[in-house]
Amino acid sequence: MHKLLKIFSSRLFWAVLAILVQIAFIVVLIIYLGDFSISFTLYSAVATVLALMIFCRDDAPEYRMSWMLVVLVIPLLGGILYLLFGNKKQGRKESKIRSMYKANALKGWNDIPGCSIEVDSLKDPDDRNLAKYIQNHTNALVYSNSNVTYFPQSDRAYLPLLEELEKAKNFIFLEFFIYDNGELLDSVMEILKRKAAQGVKVCLMYDDIGCSFTLKGGYDNALRKLGIQAVCFNPIKPRMNPRLNYRDHRKMCIVDGNVAISGGLNMADEYINRKIRFGHWKDNSFIIKGAGVWNCTLMFIELWNFAAPKQDRIEDPQKYAPTLKYRRSSGYIQSYGDSPLDDDRVAENAYLTIINNANDYVWITTPYLILDSVMQDALILAAKSGVDVRIITPSIPDKKIVFEVTESNYYRLVENGVKIYEYRPGFIHSKMFVSDDKRAILGTTNMDFRSFFLHFECATVFYGGKTVREVKADFLKTFELCEQVPTDYRKRVGRLRRVFRGVVRAVAPML
């Protein structure tokens, strides 16, 4: 009963209801404009045109096929749903704003700390190729002169996070997908309110859908009254708009330009196991100190300026550059962002590069395994080439239908040499890659269509050094808590369940 009341009282529920009413009105209006034969002809024409339009887009084949199936089966409603949720084309106004801020961001993506390295100086050619790709498409530079602390469990980052916030003297930037009242957020907010009162600039950004069931409407206005500059990213509005699907899935906290905290951690108690919902919550976090924080700061400023009201925009990024530098570093780092508002699937391509360049092993953790054919083929090719390919997924799901799609992706992978392990204690939320003791990627990008196509994401590549070794050690300990999925897994799943999974998998890109 409590969950139902929470759903019915959320602004997301009423926004979705308003959209459904609009769709129903359009359907009824068209039906009553003519007799059934005319309406059927109109529906068929709409279905054909939309299917051809979707087919001609440059999206992944699975993404296009799912939407084509929907518009062909339910032409009018499917067409409306596609325009609302599937069409990623930007409007003229949005394109103009995005281009303007992208141009402004380019001015800021200079090596203000003066500590970046030339990509060509990376010794490993595979590292050079990956770093060049990321730099060419996101402007992110490669840094040494930084210190990294890795936390294999996010609850271990809880106290260090509070300690770094307490040290803030100039500014604090926070950008998380979910904020939920509890021990973690209450502790953070207590510090933020005190720091804002002391004159520290505090900028906080949250995603409206990510917080639709956790924060009350007008939360940003409440924070402004406390002296905190707050932005609700892409607010939910009760009207049909394709931008509704673009969500800010990033997780970053930046203090004085010298400290950046990122990983899978959200501002909610289940992420630090103070609230148990799906068994033990396995996540990771990391802290960067020094020159390498600069990329994270620029990522935040770019998206902040895109979403914030004019009076709150940050006009001079150089004022937020790091002042702390480390003479020695263990390896190199490159933090980067991915956006649904361009034509580059940087997050997915970075993962594919890691897989394709692996010689000995590539190990992966992801809470969701909803893959396109390109990613599946890359994983299978690596496994068939003798690479030790392992993927860790949860055993206790947070979203049951999504988990059915995840498990449906096991069939082909395990039958072709990819080893899949389920984390038995509960839910694993970490998103990380490690390969050949040489490189690792940690961040917010899930292996699913939403992260690859529709979300703003952030991640950091670690080229060599102790962090790569620590990530590998974390994997080795986690494997001991997992159960491997057998190669004959398909045969162990009942026929009706396989049929159900086939149906939901057909619309997987929409989940």
Please describe what this structure looks like.
The protein is of the alpha/beta class. It folds into three domains: 2-86, no CATH class; 92-120 and 147-329, Endonuclease, Chain A (2-Layer Sandwich), CATH 3.30.870; 346-510, Endonuclease Chain A (Endonuclease, Chain A, 2-Layer Sandwich). The protein has 19 helices and 20 strands. Strands 7, 12, 13, 14, 15, 17, 18, 19 and 20 form a nine-stranded mixed sheet that branches. The chain has a seven-stranded mixed sheet with strand order 3-11-9-8-4-5-6, with helices on both faces. Strands 1-2 form a two-stranded antiparallel ribbon. Helix 13 (373-384) links the parallel strand 13 (361-365) and strand 14 (388-394). The longest helix is centred in the first third of the chain and has 21 residues, at 11-31. The mean pLDDT is 87.
Identify the CATH homologous superfamily of the largest domain. Endonuclease Chain A
Shape: globular
What is the residue-averaged pLDDT? Answer: 87
Strand residues, percent: 15-25%
Helix percentage: 40-55%
Low-confidence stretches: none
What does the secondary structure layout of this molecule look like, with pairings?
Blueprint: H1 2-8, H2 11-31, H3 36-55, H4 61-73, H5 75-86, H6 92-108, E1 116-117, H7 125-138, E2 142-143, E3 146-151, H8 158-166, E4 171-176, H9 183-197, E5 201-207, H10 219-224, E6 229-233, E7 247-248, E8 252-255, E9 259-263, E10 280-282, E11 285-290, H11 293-307, E12 332-338, H12 346-357, E13 361-365, H13 373-384, E14 388-394, H14 400-408, H15 410-415, E15 419-423, E16 426-428, E17 432-435, E18 439-443, H16 449-454, E19 455-463, H17 466-479, E20 482-484, H18 489-492, H19 495-506
Parallel strand pairs: 4-5, 5-6, 7-19, 10-16, 13-14, 14-15
Antiparallel strand pairs: 1-2, 3-11, 4-8, 8-9, 9-11, 12-19, 13-17, 15-20, 17-18, 18-19
